[in-house]
Model the fold of this input.
Amino acid sequence: MSLFASAGGQRIKQVRSVLEHVGLYVGLAVYTAAGAKIFQVIEHPNELDILTTYQALLISKREIFLRSVWNESQNSVNYREKIDEYLCDYEEVVEEAIGHGINVVSQDFHINWNYIQSVFFSTTILTTIGYGNIAPVTFLGRLFCIIFAIIGIPFTLSVIADVGQLFATMLSTVWNKYKDKIQPIIDKIKKEKADDDDMGIGGNMYTALAAFVCLILFLSFGAFLFTLWEDWTFFDAFYFCFITMTTIGFGDIVPDIKIGEKTAYMLVCTIYILVGMAFTTTAIELLRRQYAESWKKMQELRAQIQAQLKLADTLRKLGEHADKNNLELDVDIAGDLAALKDNLAKFKKGKMKGLEDIDINELDWVEKNRKVRAVTIFIYETSL
Done:
């Protein structure tokens, strides 16, 4: 009976865990959809009113300009001054109309605050990207934007963190499944590198490089997808993905979801951005940790070298003292110095720049309370 109860309790925990994850994603989707609808209700009427006003003004000014060209041609006295005046008025209207998104040639316009654009705009708020290609202009729209961001950004960060945990769980599952095949390869690599990298800095570099390569592959995959939908080069698409995933969000290149029915495209963009931000954050954090760990090990390496230099200096002085006083010491000073030379040579073997020219016989050894001058600056050679 207890076995069934234990199995039932485990099943309930699993279902509850799944519901928690699903609840987060559904909650964010509902919050984004509701916010987008509110933005549309607030901003759409104002935008439509502005566009129709400038459209009518553009048409009327164009007619006035054309009519003035014909009428003023009959009066040769002030013809040039009048045409310049009408032309300047028309150019001002054209500039303002273009700024509001009206096509001067066709005298037509496209609504920015349709529902699809509103959803995409809401996504850029929640992810803090903020392209800037579309923004609220009304008082109510800006006020709601502040409230929407204050509540939604922490919510979105929780979802991104949850996605990161799912990534970690997936990696753990894959590792446990293929551990028997991967572990021997890792052990072999560690064995080959053991003599050349006693401090483990090389391993950190490999881990950081692997994370960097995975990030590049993920961005390249997204760039390839965008080249299928947009009239972008691969580099432009890759640039957009990088600017987006790092939340820089210049807004100079944005997806074109204004024209036509692009609900599926908008949905794919939104999912890719959310997943990509979680993946990018994880990769950057891994790079940061590996760099910090490598720097810590470099400091440990510096301390070890200084300690060995001090020891070598003590042995040298002890040997000189024994020679002067004809003393016999039961210490293999020459062997210890040779071992120290081997250790220093191991540290200098291509892993750190700045140690290649050190000669143990030419170093400025410790005298009294002075610190060793041998190695004061390390230049850490890395691919980051």
Summary: Residues 350-384 have pLDDT under 50 and may be disordered. The longest helix spans residues 2-72. Residues 22 and 189 are 41 Å apart (CA to CA). The first strand starts at residue 102 and ends at 103.
